[in-house]
Amino acid sequence: MPKLPEIARNPLAWIAARWTPDPVTVRRAALAALAMSVVIVITGGAVRLTASGLGCPTWPTCSGDSLLGTREMGIHHAIEISNRMLTYVLCAAVGWAIIAIRSMEPRRTGLYRLAWAQFWVVVGNAVWGGLTVLTKLNPYVVSLHFLLSAALITVAVLTWQRIGEGDASPRPLVGKPVRQLGQLLAAAAAVLIVVGTLVTGAGPHPGDSSGTYKVQRIDVDWRTIAQLHADFAWVVVGLTVALWFVLRAVDAPPGPQRRSLELFGVLMGQGVIGYVQYFTHLPKVLVDLHMFGACLVWIATLRVLLSFRERPAAEPGALSAALPQPVGVAGREPVDAARVPLADQGGDPLPVRR
Fold first, then answer.
1. 206: which DSSP letter?
2. What are the E-state strand segments in the chain?
3. Strand partners of residue 172
4. Residue 285 to residues 95, 204, 225: CA-CA distances in angstroms?
5. How far apart are CA 51 and CA 54, in angstroms?
6. What is the pTM (predicted TM-score) of this model?
7. Are 98 and 111 within 8 A, CB to CB?
8. Residues 6+ apart with CB under 8 A from 115
9. pLDDT tens digits for range 55-94
């Protein structure tokens, strides 16, 4: 049996042997994957808000044996199938990031694994998206579909951040109490997003307009859940303000202070959208814009946490070990300045030899 050419056996290695991207190209590839992970959330929200969630009534095909369906199925079919096709665009963006990271010099295994993690989250979420159709838009399944999108955004942010860092162990830039406050903030933001999906599941936009199926809703007044959602939003805002004051008090580096201010600004914008959509009875455009804001809130929260540490290119001891060691006079060992006494036993300074 003839041996397969190298490009067929290992296409990524074949590309890496012939192309080495510059750091800007790699970072742009990771940013494109992050941007597409947000875009797919917005378009997915548009599918539900235009009542096109069952525009293709089955999965993985669209209707019967047809993968794409037919034009006669109407506008809801066109919206739903367009969102499905965007998944391939997302896969292409993630694939571009994987190729660029694999072709870097020197090779970075940890970063490469993060890039592949994005791909597997995309695949898992695509299958889960199919499950939302098969369960006829069960609100709990739809909620988890959004949370898996948040997981994809998390991995994409980590990948993008790690490209600009080294591979040494992370070194904290702030104290443990500040880091714990940041972790509490992230936990509160995560709860805020989860409660937000419950508001969606109980709200007046079930996602289907065909009338063929009775779409299940979460059996609770959506206004009650929305109030709980607003309460958690204020908790997150309060923790963000507290974190900023603490960072100022401990004279933290500019990075964490700037990231906390960015998060505060995103939260204020998201709050305005949230209150306006509540008092205007959830218009579709504002709901989708609020979903976009939720993605930005989570990205800003992750950036706050990531600003609490730095990762050098190499471990501190590795560089000094690689450098040539000084040699003393006439073969003697060099004097260790840290062990030279500066005072006698009585505490008086020793005379300096000139």
1. -
2. 171-172, 309-310
3. 309
4. 31, 14, 20
5. 8
6. 0.85
7. no
8. 30, 33, 94, 97, 98, 101, 102, 159
9. 888 999 988 888 888 777 789 889 999 999 999 999 999 9
